[in-house]
Specification:
Helices cover about 40% and strands about 10% of the residues. The protein has one helix at about 40-65, and strands at about 5-10, 25-30. The longest helix is centred in the C-terminal third of the chain and has 28 residues, at about 40-65. The chain starts with a strand and ends with a helix.
């Protein structure tokens, strides 16, 4: 099943007095998250792991300092 189609309109085509679009068209609905290839997925995963590791280091340093 593909991405559903939704009706779109350029802001320049909307009549200001009536709010009606002069030239509507159909476009694919945008997804909440973009599709990622394997390398982009790995890059996001590494960034998340680095954030977690950094937080763990700061948490450990704080315990040692007390």
């Amino acid at each position: 099943m593909g991405t559903p189609l939704v009706q779109g309109c350029d802001s320049a085509d909307v009549d200001a007095s009536t709010g009606v679009c002069a030239h509507p068209y159909w476009v694919q609905q945008q997804q909440l998250f973009p599709e990622l290839d394997a390398s982009a997925g790995v890059a996001v995963s590494v960034a998340i792991l680095i954030c977690w590791a950094t937080a763990y280091v700061f948490k450990s340093l704080r315990r040692v300092a007390e």
